[in-house]
What does this fold into?
Amino acid sequence: MKIDLKGKNALVGGSSKGLGRAIAERLAASGANVTLMARNEEELKKRLSSLDQSQGQIHQYRVVDFSNFDEFSKHMDVFFKTNGIDILVNNTQGPPAGSASEKKVADYQSAFDLLFKTVVHTTSLALPHMKKEQWGRIINVASISVKEPLPYLVLSNSIRSAVVTWAKSLSLDIAPFNITINNTLTGYFETERIAQLNNAKAKTLGVPVEEIRKALEATVPMNRFGKPEEYASLVCFLASEQASYITGTNIPIDGGLVKSM
It folds into this structure.
C-alpha cells in the first residue's frame, strides 16, 4: 500500500528526536510538507536538513517549549495566522515520573498544561483550515497507561486519559467535516525517554540499568522494544486517505504488552 501525502501540510510536535522525529521523517517521505516543533533549535536544524524533499516538499521548523503554556500558545497563535495544517500530530515530552503518593497538586497542574492544554489549543487552531478543506487528520501520541496505569507514571496516566476522552468527544463533532482524530497508545520503544526512565528506576532500586531493560523486555510478548520507524508507519497510515473511516479510536502499539481488551 502506497501512502501519498503530497500537498498535505503536517505539524509534528516533539520532532527533534524519538518518536516525533521518526513520524516527521515518514510523513515527509510520503510527500507531506512538514513543520517540526521542539525546544532545541540545533537539533531541529539537523532534522530539517535530513527530511525528504524529492517531491518538492517545503519543510520548516518552530522552536517551542511545551512546558511553558503561555509562551507556547502565543507562538501557535502567530504560526496559524499564516499556516494551514492538514495533518496534526500532537506529541510532547512526557511529565516527570513518580507515584500518586509523591505528587502534589502543582505537579498535576503542570502536567495538565503540558499534555492537555497544548493539545486542545493547537487542535482548536488547526480545525478551521481542516473544516474549510473538508479534510483533516489529528493523531495524539498517548500511552498504553490509559488502559493499564503504570505505577511510576501517575501524571502521564491521569492526564493522557483526559486527552483520549476529550479526543473521543471531539471525534463526534468533526466527523461530518471528513476530519478524523485518533490516539496511538505507546508501549516501550527505543527512545531517549525510555532510557531516561530506565536510568531513573535503576538508580532508585540500586541495580544496573541493563537489568531494568531486560525486565521490561520480558513483559512484552515480542520480547523487545519497538523501533520508532514502526511507530511512524502507524501514524502515517492514520494520516492518509486510506484511514478515512477510522476515528475516535485508541490504538495500542506495544508488541502485545497490554492484556486488556
